[in-house]
Amino acid sequence: MISVKDLHYLVVLSQTQHFGKAAEACHVSQPTLSGQIKKLEQRLGARLVEASKPKLLLTPLGEQVIAKAKPVLAQVADIESLATQHQDPYSGKLTLALIPSVAAYILPFLTQQVRSQLPNLRIELVELQTHKLLQQLQAGTVDAGLLALPKPQPGLRSLNMWIEEFVLALPARHEWVGRQHVASREIASQKLLILEDGHCLSDQTRRLCGLSDGNNQFKGTSLETLRHMVRMGYGVTLVPKLTQLMWQEQGETGIEFIAINNPVPGRQLGLMGRTGSVLWPVIEKLNNLAQEVLPQQVEAATVIEFD
Questions:
Q1: 85-97 per-residue burial string, b: 16 or more CB within 10 A, e: under 16
Q2: pLDDT average, residue stretch 135-156
Q3: What is the pLDDT of residue 216?
Q4: Is residue 304 part of a domain?
Q5: Same domain for 196 and 275
Q6: 82 neighbors 95 (Cβ within 8 angstroms)
Q7: Range of the domain at 93
Q8: What is the CATH number of the domain that holds 102?
């Protein structure tokens, strides 16, 4: 009989594209994971993985097995949570994934509330870019995701939490310093610093400013990288409101912030989980706790959608 654990190893391997990283994510040694994948192949009588360099590839059968395994693993995860949730819906473990541009800034608002109001809930945090977060959520590797909500996704449902406006961050000596507002169409005339591909904030910035993927913008790996680049005078960048507040609380003096209008851009933050998940009472409670501690949102902000 096929082992659910072996299917989990295969799915994680397909997501990480690396035996070592997959083993680390599964909390086993690399030889153990490799051995279980081989046993799975022996049970099925066919190869599932081609360990060719420089990239790990799946065979056509491997792709089909993974497509079948993901909903099975999601159901197994729900079954494992069912007994605990039946006794106390706010106890047990919840694996929560957050996108990088949210994780560092929203957790300080949320952590204390969770500890005081959900003392029996153990939250395991994972930081993932949006596309990987959605993949792992659908596969059952994570239970919920806190992110800028994309368009509706099959098998997932979402809760709106907060509309976060974007502001323009620019060097303290920039010619625009002192202005109250800057129109969104003006930003494209500046040297715009954006996050690398894969970050939803990068997609939203390009859509707001009418930029194509071919534009030669500097692409940073994190908001902190862009922060240093702006401070040194290399360009301007869009940042979420929580990022602005955090930088200002840290005493940032080399960067000024200007509101954007026509339109006021924003993103819809929220929580996502699997449709029918037994963890929905917990996800709803987390959403309510976050809404209690987040700053007052800008009602006029226009949400920039992305896929």
A1: beeebbebebbbb
A2: 90
A3: 52
A4: no
A5: no
A6: no
A7: 82-162+268-298
A8: 3.40.190.10
